[in-house]
Amino acid sequence: MIINYKVISKLKGLSYYLNQIRNLTCNSAVYSADQVFTGELDRFNGITVDSTKFNCAKDDFNDTLQKSLKQWTEEQRKCIWFKIHIMHADYVPLLAQKGFNFHHARDEYLMMYKWLPADIQPNLPPACHTNLGVGALVLNDRDQLLAVSEKNYNYPHWKLPGGYVERGEDITHAAKREVFEETGVKSEFESLITFRHTHNMMYGNSDIYMLLMMKALSQDIILSQREVNACKWMDVAEYTTHPHVHDLNKYIVKEALRYKKENVALDIHKKTMVSPLGVREINLMLLKNGRGK
After folding, report:
1. What is the mean pLDDT of residues 156-162?
2. Rounded distance, CA 149 to CA 232, Å?
3. Mapping DSSP to helix (H, G, I), strand (E, B) and coil, where does residue 161 land?
4. How far, in Å, CA of 122 to CA of 134, rounded?
5. How far apart, in Å, are the Cα atoms of 149 and each of 114, 130, 168?
6. Which residue in 88, 151, 188, 196 could disulfide with 51, CB within 3.0 to 4.6 Å?
């Protein structure tokens, strides 16, 4: 084995440099002895501190946090938020010891909070508590619908393709994506059929499931080997009488086709909304061509 001492020397130097950065204290180049943590002031008189904006050893973190909490209390701040990125996870137990609680988390960070006013009950927004899923009733020109049997079920079934909506994704785009990922069939949105709302689902969250009517733009099936056991075009009459189709699905498909025949549909329009808080795109569900009886 050949040992490259120059490489080892460089690695040792890099390791020393990284340790020096890690051991920076709040009282060094980043903070003076009298300084407190700085953060962004929100419209509710709260402060958000981001762990990427400071660098502290554990002992100095506790001292600076104590000084910061004292000053924020004197300034009558309400909620103090610490956004702790995963590379700074050492700070989490230190904050917990000072009365900070968990609020929500993402892949790369954890948000912790402490409510300061002793005479006011906290009125913070709840952490995300509802999952959003989407399903698709995909119809072709031969009075057939797209049915799938998924791998994560331990009983015989035929259901409609679908899955969870991703963050920042529109409902119609999610339906197209899920249909294509599971079956290889391209489709386009026609109408919102219905949605169901239930509780105590995945992670203990509530769950909203939106069902959309989609028009097939292709016929060939390329099923997902990861998620799907079987997939096929099934006659509507067969699906609505099949013993392995849930009664709720049978009912919804029948009602959806009845409304389609009567030209009753819920369209989804994307609109741009301007308010004093800024510009935001929203999806509106509007009745079109309605002549229900």
Report:
1. 96
2. 9
3. coil
4. 34
5. 47, 25, 28
6. 88
Tokens coding 38: 């700085």
Query: What does the pLDDT look like over 46-99, one tens digit per residue?
Result: 999 999 998 887 778 999 999 999 999 999 999 999 999 999 999 999 999 999
Q: Which residue has the tokens 């402060």?
A: 47
Whole-angstrom CA distances from 250 to 38, 158, 164 are 58, 11, 22
- pLDDT higher than 90, residue 118: yes
CA–CA separation, 86 and 241 (whole Å): 51
Residue 158, CA atoms < 13 Å, CB-side half-sphere: 20
Provide the token pair at 246.
Answer: 């849930």
Residue for token digits 């204290």?
A: 25
Q: How far is CA 114 from the centre of its chain?
A: 24
Q: Which two tokens stand for residue 256?
A: 């959806």
Domain annotation for the chain: domains and CATH numbers: 31-127 (3.40.630.30), 130-287 (3.90.79.10)
Looking up tokens 């890099």, which residue turns up? 14
